[in-house]
Specification:
Blueprint (H helix, E strand, L loop, with lengths): L1 E9 L1 H18 L6 E6 L2 H17 L5 E4 L30 E9 L3 H11 L6 E9 L11 E5 L6 E6 L10 E8 L5
Parallel strand pairs: 2-3, 2-4, 4-5, 5-6
Antiparallel strand pairs: 1-8, 7-8
Helix pairs in contact: 1-2
Length: 188
């Protein structure tokens, strides 16, 4: 597959505005920051979670704990790949029992990553509740999951991808979200 075209749908300023909106929505739904923690899913969800936590800190003048979760070994499809899975850091430096956890990811697609994240977070304890915040919801769910906080909903075709790039990732070097249309065999 090759890229047919790529269109920017969010720039750095738009991403910042959307994350600020999500931050306010999280605070409103949870009636403030008490007994609240964010858990970012590797890789870009981690940076989004840290940005939201920073925004909440500025709004509420309080620090929100942020954890990092790698769900690779919890996915139901990691065994399908022929190569060895690349496992990244998981760090939950707080007690999850009895608190509200907001899982944070960049793109919600089939729901399989979030299903894996739910299984993984339960290995750390029993939260009061688990909510989901995503920058982009692109549809095409295979598992009946939905996000509590959505930056933007972008309906995609099966030959399209959403690509989130973040300045914190050296290979990305920019904050943007693009919609990529791929050439599939037989396309012209």
């Amino acid at each position: 597959m090759t890229i047919k075209n790529e269109v920017r749908i969010m720039d750095a300023e738009t991403i910042k505005r959307v994350l600020l909106k999500i931050s306010h929505e999280i605070l409103a739904r949870n009636k403030g920051p008490k007994k609240l923690a964010l858990v970012g899913l590797q890789t870009r969800g981690v940076f989004i979670a840290k940005r939201i936590a920073s925004m909440i800190e500025k709004i509420e003048n309080t620090v929100i704990p942020v954890g990092i979760l790698d769900v690779t070994m919890y996915r139901d499809d990691f065994r399908i790949a022929m190569k060895q899975p690349s496992v990244q850091i998981t760090s939950i430096p707080f007690d999850v029992d009895g608190i509200s956890i907001v899982l944070v990811d960049d793109v919600l697609y089939t729901g399989r990553t979030i299903r894996a994240a739910l299984a993984a977070i339960m290995d750390f304890g029993r939260p009061k509740q688990v909510q989901l915040a995503v920058l982009i919801d692109r549809g095409h769910r295979e598992i009946p999951l939905s996000a509590d906080y959505i930056g933007e909903t972008i309906k995609t075709q099966f030959n399209q991808e959403i690509r989130v790039r973040m300045i914190e990732i050296k290979e990305d070097g920019i904050d943007e979200v693009t919609l990529v249309t791929l050439n599939i065999k037989g396309d012209s």
